[in-house]
Each structure stands twice: as structure tokens, then as C-alpha cells.
Design a protein that fits this description.
single chain; about 130 residues; mainly beta; six-stranded antiparallel beta barrel; four-stranded antiparallel beta sheet; elongated
């Protein structure tokens, strides 16, 4: 049906759930965004800071490449940047914790994916 590897899987409201990893005759394997194998080019919606999201399991994401000089706050929304082949502006996560180490170049930022499986089981694949 046109489904291929790396296609985004979303829930209602344009919330990114994961990406297609493998396609079979009658099904597909989806890696959820909190899987450590999933890295997504993102952008903090409010400040437009570019980040790389990386799954950390248990409904957590790390936001990599956030410089110490960047201003990022808890509760800000992370969306897809469109720089890695995924559509731009899909909702990814909400920033939950920001730690700015004094001697490091980058901040330690964690986020919670916005997808909530308890809201329903209907998922969609964006075929481009």
C-alpha cells in the first residue's frame, strides 16, 4: 500500500508516534519515538532552537545539541524540523527538565512524548 521504511506514524492531532522500521506483507514494525534507535531532527516551537531528539525508553526523550547559551524552558513544545525527511511541524514532545552544567558546552534536556496511548488506538502513516 505504499508504506516504506522511515515513514512517520502519527496519532490524531498530528502527534508523532514513531517511524516505520520494517515492512511486511500484511503489517509493519514501528519504532516508537522513545526507542533509543530513533533520532529525530526537531525544533523547539516557541524559541525555534534546533535539537536532536533521542529515545531514552519509558516515555522519555533526550534533547541533544542544546548549547548552554540557548534559552529553553520546561513545558515548551518540540516539533519536527523537516530537516531529516519527516514532515515539518509534527508534535513530538514537551520539555520536562532542563539542566545547565556550568562546565559543559551543552545542556541536559529531557522531554516527554506527547503521544498518549490511552487516548485511542487509531494511528496513521503519512505516505508523503
Amino acid at each position: 500500500d505504499g508504506i516504506a521504511k522511515k515513514m512517520p506514524v502519527i496519532a490524531a492531532g498530528n502527534i508523532l508516534v514513531g517511524v516505520i522500521e520494517q515492512v511486511f506483507d500484511d503489517s509493519a514494525l514501528i519504532l516508537l519515538i522513545d526507542d533509543p534507535r530513533v533520532k529525530i531532527s526537531g525544533r523547539v516551537q516557541e524559541s525555534r532552537i534546533l535539537v536532536e531528539t533521542k529515545g531514552e525508553l519509558q516515555n522519555n526523550l533526550g534533547l541533544n545539541l542544546v548549547a548552554n547559551s540557548d534559552e529553553i524552558k520546561e513545558s515548551e513544545t518540540v516539533i519536527t524540523s523537516g530537516l531529516d525527511g519527516l514532515p515539518e511541524a509534527l508534535l513530538i514532545a514537551e520539555v520536562t527538565k532542563v539542566k545547565i552544567p556550568s562546565s559543559a558546552l551543552f545542556q541536559t534536556v529531557t522531554a516527554r512524548p506527547l503521544f498518549d496511548p490511552s487516548l485511542g488506538s487509531s494511528l496513521f502513516v503519512i505516505l508523503k
